[in-house]
Amino acid sequence: MQRKDRGFTLIEIMVVVVIIGLLATLVTLSVLPRAEQARRTKAVADIKTIMNALELYKLDNGDYPSQEQGLKALIEKPATGKIPKHWREGGYLNSNKVPVDPWGHSYVYVYPGHHGKYDILSYGRDGEPGGEGEDADITSWNLDEQQ
Questions:
Q1: Is residue 90, in this structure, part of any structural domain at all?
Q2: pLDDT tens digits, residue range 34-91?
Q3: What is the CATH number of the domain that holds 61?
Q4: Would you tell me which of 64, 82, 141, 145 could form a disulfide with 115, CB atoms 3.0–4.6 Å apart?
């Protein structure tokens, strides 16, 4: 007499586990590089958004925020330095906070800039100036090359 409710053998279960492990490894190896590329693309988009907000700030107030006022001037009317007379109620960014880069670091704002009217940069994954590959800085003066 044969049993009709026969279960899986240990070897069959092990084969399935090995196959699932191989598939998980392949997916991980193909997805991880994309995640870092997505972070860098997000940083480029953030810098472009900040640049647009700075241009709107300048249109309303005649100049960019000072180095001391920083990017915070885009969400909160400055109380120090040259006080803007036509600061837009609600600020210049859609959120109530200045974005941080995808690695959790603040964007750096330099005014006047060394490479343009102002410089905005993220120090990348390592949070340190310079770097190569995934640790390379993302800067406002060569955005097209960094995507």
A1: yes
A2: 788 889 999 999 999 999 999 999 999 999 999 999 999 999 999 999 999 999 999 9
A3: 3.30.700.10
A4: 141
DSSP state of 139: E
Helix H segments across the chain? Answer: 10-61
Q: Is residue 10 part of a domain?
A: no
From start to end of the chain, where are the E strands?
A: 108-110, 119-122, 138-139
Domain that holds residue 45: 35-146
Q: Give the residue-averaged pLDDT of 4-28.
A: 82
| CA gap 44, 59 in Å, rounded | 23
The answer as to whether 81 is a domain residue is: yes
Query: Based on the number of CB atoms within 10 Å of its own CB, is 73 exposed (0-12), middle (13-18) or buried (19 or more)?
Result: buried
Closest CA to 57 of 42, 72, 79: 72
pTM: 0.77
3-state secondary structure of 108: strand
Please check whether residue 20 is in contact with residue 12, taking contact to mean a CB–CB distance below 8 angstroms: no
Looking at residue 110, its amino acid is V
The total number of structural domains in the chain stands at 1
Nearest to 115 by CA among 137, 92, 91: 137
